[in-house]
Amino acid sequence: MNYFSHYYFDHIHSLANHNFGLALPDFVRNFARGHRLKPGLQPLPGMEDSAELVAGAEKHFSRDQVFHNSAFFHNTEQHIIGHLRPVFQSLGIPRYWFAAHVLGEMMLDRVLMKQHPAMLDAFYLDLSLASRPTIHNLLTAHSVNSTSDFFTRLDRFCEIQYLRRYVEDDTMVYSLNRIFMYTGADTEWDSSKYPAIMQTLPEIEHHIQSTLSSLQEEMV
To answer: Under DSSP, is residue 182 helix (H, G, I), strand (E, B) or coil?
Structure first.
């Protein structure tokens, strides 16, 4: 799942450190190049805040397992592949199956954010309230030694609140291309390729909206 989906399913009111932890594995992967957190994180002795962060991160790992094995995810992925495969093949873009996986998670965020705008406000508020010293200490203890770049990118993420732009079709395609480039799967797409991909998004969004209740049942 993506950032907001984790928050939607598992945030705990007034526990900012726990709620930050829900996104921490993705933050490390995206903001600390070459580093990944793995299940089995250990809190720092004597630091209750770190236990909350770890609890959130461990919930992230367990929820991803449930989500990626859910009928909702597999059905959504196949639905998106059906729409993206001919478009990607005609545009000469590789790995349509990878795009279907990523786009499914991003579009789930879009649907949930549209339905729960106040919760998105709470998400960003909790990111700002989480203890930066505790995050620094926990990352250092788990071999993420260069935290300055991590916090620079995190602060930028919180400042521009980029997730709010997921409602824009061109931003969604741009973000998908950034992920392709980040993983080395492709180069920057010419903007002339955007419209054909954007035309698939309304139907994908409708599919997720119409089947969301099944995911909510599977995530209980």
So the answer is: helix
